[in-house]
Write a structure and sequence with these properties.
Length: about 400
């Protein structure tokens, strides 16, 4: 491409796949790259930033990526025109870059020669500026790339919810999780014998805060980490491209949101090594003539080998239920339908969790009560908690609401 041709191209306004008018072919290529790779962007004057003073000072930045809070500028005229013009353009560019730096605003710079390998250049620059690798999506303008939502999710989400709470809103959030397959092997000598500790499994790490979310043991000794089973079942399921409209058809979600990772793949590996080593141990015993000798073997972090790391976006649906002034929520991992957070496992009377029982909703106070602490009026079938219901009889108790309580 010779430079005069490029200059001509630069002046030609063109339309992106998404439909906005941009200043050049280069900007179009970048915008379309963002769209196709599920990177949310805003273009020029649509850009929203808290630093408005800064914005007016340096005019409009080309692109803003809200998920990563980073600006992208395409320096399209860096190598075109007379050397005098180039000099002026370069000076202006340096000044702008300085403004970004001085204001602590992250900026990714792209140049015409990056367009030949836009994907590679953008990813490299992203890593340099943000200090972590680019993880795109999963929610784009038209599609979502994530684990699928089970067809039965609503049935399980609403299972055993008191009927008075059936009016609700559903919120869908995609959260990133790292599925780390590990293998641990440690060895020591114990009474002239070699003894081994072995453990092979998969650790699930939340991609926003690095917390351990779940573990599944494949063989060997189990680390002392709680197996919730809430996420481990997702490991065998593949991410898919899903049209947004199809997701919208599944249920009337009041919002669909996605969050990118805040930790990198190597962070996830490091966390897995630390957690596995910290929570694994095996005690060996030996019966001697008149005593028992024991030895406990604990692995080192470098005994833990990482086999694979998969990053997947898991759909989590929260049902928000309202009654009088109270709001109740239940959150479900909606790929294999596991409840991960549940207000309905709680009894307001004892202020304790009753995880296996269904609860009733007291129509007087709006509180939830387990079967022991919530009853129905034998006359009107109104549900009330023990604080608002009255009973008659000693052996065969009957329960009444205050209105139907016999005089
Ligand atoms: Zn009550
Ligand atoms: Zn109770
Ligand atoms: Zn009654």
């Amino acid at each position: 491409m010779d430079s005069s041709f490029r200059r001509n191209q630069y002046g030609v306004k063109t339309k992106t796949l998404r439909g906005e008018t941009v200043k050049s072919q280069g900007e179009k290529q970048i915008a379309d790259y963002f769209l196709e790779n599920r990177i949310k962007y805003t273009y020029e004057d649509q850009a929203k930033t808290e630093v408005s003073a800064f914005r007016s000072e340096i005019s409009h930045p080309d692109f803003y990526l809200p998920d990563y809070q980073v600006y992208v500028e395409f320096w399209g005229l860096i190598d075109v025109g007379e050397s005098k013009d180039r000099e002026r353009y370069r000076k202006n560019m340096d000044w702008k870059k300085e403004q970004y730096a001085n204001n602590g605003i992250k900026l990714i710079s792209l140049y015409p020669w990056n367009l030949n390998d836009l994907d590679g250049s953008f990813k490299a620059e992203f890593e340099k500026v943000l200090g972590r690798e680019l993880v795109t999506g999963p929610v784009g303008e038209k599609s979502v790339y994530a684990l699928p939502i089970s067809k039965d999710f609503e049935k399980w989400l609403l299972n055993d919810i008191p009927s008075k709470l059936m009016s609700r809103t559903l919120q869908l959030v995609y959260l990133p999780y790292f599925f780390v397959e590990y293998d641990c092997f440690a060895q020591t000598r114990f009474f002239y014998e070699t003894v081994n500790l072995e453990s092979h499994g998969m650790l699930v790490i939340e991609g926003q805060n690095g917390a351990v979310a779940d573990i599944a043991l494949h063989s060997g000794v189990s680390p002392q980490i709680q197996q919730t089973g809430c996420f481990s079942g997702c490991a065998v399921i593949q991410q898919r491209e899903l049209e947004r409209s199809k997701i919208a058809q599944m249920a009337s979600f009041s919002k669909i949101e996605a969050f990118p990772t805040k930790i990198s793949r190597s962070d996830a590996e490091r966390i897995a090594r630390v957690e596995i080593a910290k929570h694994l141990q095996q005690t060996f015993r030996k019966q001697l003539k008149n005593r028992v000798e024991t030895k406990t073997l604990r692995p080192y972090e470098n005994n833990v080998r990482i086999i694979s790391v998969d990053l997947m976006h898991v759909p989590l649906v929260t049902g928000v239920f309202q009654y009088k002034n109270r709001v109740y929520q239940r959150m479900m991992q909606s790929t294999t339908c596991r409840i991960v957070g549940d207000d309905f496992a709680y009894c307001n009377v004892t202020e304790r969790n009753h995880p296996t029982e269904s609860v009733i909703l007291c129509e007087e106070c709006g509180g939830l009560a387990c079967k022991d602490h919530g009853k129905q009026c034998v006359d009107c079938e109104k549900n009330l908690c023990v604080e608002h219901i009255r009973s008659k009889g000693l052996v065969l108790k009957k329960y009444y609401c205050p209105r139907h309580y016999p005089k």
